[in-house]
Amino acid sequence: MKNTFDLLEQYSRFSSVYKTSEEMAFFMKHRDALASVEQFAYLYDADASDFLMIRANIIIRSLFNKKEIEKAIKELSPLLAKDQITKFRVDFKERIDKLPCYSAGKDRIYVTFFSRAINLMYLTSPEEFNKFPFNVLEKNYSSSIIDAFDTYGADIFDSVFTKLVKISTNGREIAYYHYDFKCIYIVNNQGRLDNKIYLFDEFLEEFDTTNMIERIKPVIDAYFANDRDEFIKKLNQNGFISEKMVYLIAKNWNRKHDI
Q1: What is the per-residue pLDDT across 235-246, written as a single tens digit (0 to 9) for each?
Q2: Structural domains in the chain (count)
Q3: 215 within some domain
Q4: pLDDT tens-digit profile of 66-111?
Q5: Which residues touch 16 (CB under 8 Å, ≥6 apart)?
Q6: Closest among 46, 41, 42 to 27, alpha carbons compared
Q7: Model-level pTM?
Q8: pLDDT digit string (tens) for 184-220?
Q9: Three-class DSSP category at 101
Q10: How many CB atoms neighbour CB 61 within 10 A?
Q11: Domain assignment of residue 61, given as a range
């Protein structure tokens, strides 16, 4: 017996669209950057899963940020030799303001696999990275790597590192929607995937993609309320699943594994 989420994925017309997406092309082009760092090696084969690929691209973009930050420090370092620390900081800030980041309250996280403290230094005292012990982070940073997803949690996906759109929060879970993949992702506080909800099954003769966030919210409300019947009802009422899909879900409902 398959549960609701398995069935929605099985009969979705979009479950494999990520394989030909821009995000996948980006990942395939740059994934070799992951292979050189032991802690990121598990993400090298992230093309096997849409959500794992999203996670991998967050790390890849963080690696790019790290290189750009180090390049800026190196190019601006002559200012430090002239004791122009204020100008160094101003010019450096202009450079990194252009980089993608995750805003965590007042903090801006440019390199997600580094701690908040290190990321804060980029904003407050970047000149420190031009001297020991912080200058060693350019090449020997393995011991300073943290688990970005454990540390920053589900909120890390609510950033320009991804194309996900935040729908709502319930305790330690956040619901996100991906417009290209036509999929809802339920992400927990460890930045791991709890569930995927695929929209638009193959039995729908027509489907409407307007006002998606507004239409998705009642679906997520029912999901977070653990109300299975209302969840399926809202999926159907908002045009996300067909009557035939409703029938298949009812026929295959497994109380042990479903919401």
Answers
A1: 999 999 999 999
A2: 2
A3: yes
A4: 999 999 999 999 998 888 999 999 999 999 999 999 998 889 999 9
A5: none
A6: 46
A7: 0.93
A8: 999 999 999 999 999 999 999 999 999 999 999 999 9
A9: coil
A10: 22
A11: 31-153
